[in-house]
Design goal:
Elements (H helix, E strand, L loop, with lengths): L1 E3 L7 H14 L7 E3 L3 H5 L3 E3 H7 L3 H6 L21 H12 L4 E6 L1 H17 L4 E6 L15 H20 L5 E7 L6 H4 L14 E3 L7 H12 L4 E7 L12 E6 L5 E3 L2 H12 L3 E6 L13 H19 L5 E10 L2 E9 L24 H7 L11 E2 L2 E2 L5 H4 L6
Parallel strand pairs: 1-2, 1-4, 4-5, 5-12, 6-8, 6-11, 7-8
Antiparallel strand pairs: 2-3, 9-10, 12-13, 14-15
């Protein structure tokens, strides 16, 4: 059985396709089931037979690989500690037994790996031989034990392309202006750092980059902008949504709003900086919140990203066949030039509930830009273009009507 959880990406369905492909080729497994809306699908008896889907649609794997977001839907459901309440675990494993499930794959980010850890620990407690394996996914690129995460490369490509297009948009006016672009990233600035890939022989935008790994200083920010405006008309600033001051206070966050995993629901960091500029510098200024657009832009997907995501799905099945459990499949960079990776795995307890930050040595001393080693790390991940099939002028994706017709689960 396979499920998807957390936020959507361009590449998560490629990993799902990889799992289906791996099971199809398997000598140990004959059927792959999909749980709709993550772990909740098992709890609410909302399961589909993905093996039958592939039999009915010969091109399903190819179309699925190039379809954004989650074909199986998602959830942000936090399993309780089974020592406090094991009722959900009992039901989940009863469902596994009823369907003769021998391996469970969960595709997701940090919070999804928390679910993998809890299910693995419960399986060990009851002596279950079900293999439980995580498959990484997150545009935040903050999972431990893997060089990078599926979904990040495509999101990075979208961010860099958008920054370059914003630069073209602003450069046409011979007036002093500041454009602030707010990019996703609560605790890690990997995606915001990717904005630097937009720089080329005629454009140095973004001119300033602020990541959550470094405390944000309002006075230093205003000083940086003023200095740049002395030599250039248009200043473009890339910021992470999670930038915070030296005391750890987010520049903009809803004080009483958190998700089920206790994470602050952030909004308005770009708008906050826009107001700072208006009040202190008095030039034309606007803020752009990229928001969900950066997650599912399949028209700008990275071929490297999709290829690796598919192979990680197949790798997960191979690991389960070998008897591996309580683990997550990983990528290890073996060469930067030429770019090469190997596929492995790591124990889930070293991954769940941890976060990988941008190394401080890859951030400028002033905290307002990134250094060349980070660009060297980023460049290979956005390489390669993916052909998109169009119908009536629009991209053609998998039919996901089974999601829109589902009853609300949480």
């Amino acid at each position: 059985m396979v499920a998807q959880s957390g936020g959507p990406t361009v590449a998560i369905n490629a990993s799902l396709a990889g799992v289906i492909s791996g099971v199809t080729k398997s000598g140990q497994y004959d059927t792959v089931y999909g749980s709709i809306n993550g772990i909740l699908g098992i709890l609410h008896d909302n399961i589909m037979n993905l093996s039958e889907l592939v039999k009915k649609q010969p091109d399903a794997l190819s179309t699925l690989t190039h379809t954004p977001a989650m074909y199986l839907g998602s959830c942000r459901f936090k399993l309780p500690d089974f020592l406090d309440d094991d009722s959900a675990y009992i039901y989940i494993f009863q469902q596994f037994e009823a369907l003769n499930i021998k391996a469970f794959f969960y595709i997701g980010g940090n919070d999804s790996m928390d679910t993998v850890l809890k299910l693995s620990n419960y399986a060990k407690k009851i002596g279950s031989d079900i293999r439980i394996i995580g498959i990484p996914k997150t545009i935040d690129n903050d999972l431990m034990e893997t060089d990078h995460t599926p979904g990040f490369g495509s999101a990075a490509k979208y961010i860099a392309s958008s920054i370059l297009e914003i630069a073209h948009d602003t450069f046409i006016y011979a007036v002093k202006s500041v454009t602030i672009v707010e990019i996703m990233g609560r605790d890690a600035g990997w995606l915001t750092a990717a904005s630097a890939l937009a720089r080329n022989e005629y454009s140095t935008a973004p001119h300033l980059i602020y990541l959550p790994e470094v405390a944000f200083d309002k006075d230093a920010f205003l000083r940086d902008v003023k200095e740049l405006l002395e030599t250039t008309n248009n200043v473009i600033v890339a910021i992470s949504e999670g930038i915070h001051d030296a005391d750890g206070n987010y520049i903009s966050a809803s004080e009483s709003s958190t998700d089920t995993f206790g994470h602050s629901q952030l909004s308005g960091a770009g708008k906050c900086l826009e107001y700072m500029i208006k009040e202190n510098i008095h030039v034309k200024v606007r803020s752009v919140e990229v928001n969900v657009l950066q997650r599912c832009a399949s028209h700008l997907s990275s071929k490297t990203d999709l290829d690796e995501s598919f192979l990680l799905g197949e790798k997960a099945v191979a690991c389960a066949e070998e008897g591996l459990t309580a683990s997550m499949v990983t990528l290890k960079r073996t060469s930067n030039t030429p770019y090469q990776v190997s596929y492995g795995h790591a124990r889930i307890e070293s991954i769940a509930n941890e976060a990988k930050s941008v190394p401080t040595e890859w951030i400028s001393e002033a905290g307002n830009d990134i250094r060349e080693p980070l660009l060297d790390y980023l460049r290979p991940l956005i390489q390669g273009e993916v052909p998109v099939t169009y119908k009536n002028g629009l991209p053609m994706y998998m039919n996901v009507s089974h999601l829109s017709n589902s009853k609300p689960l949480n």
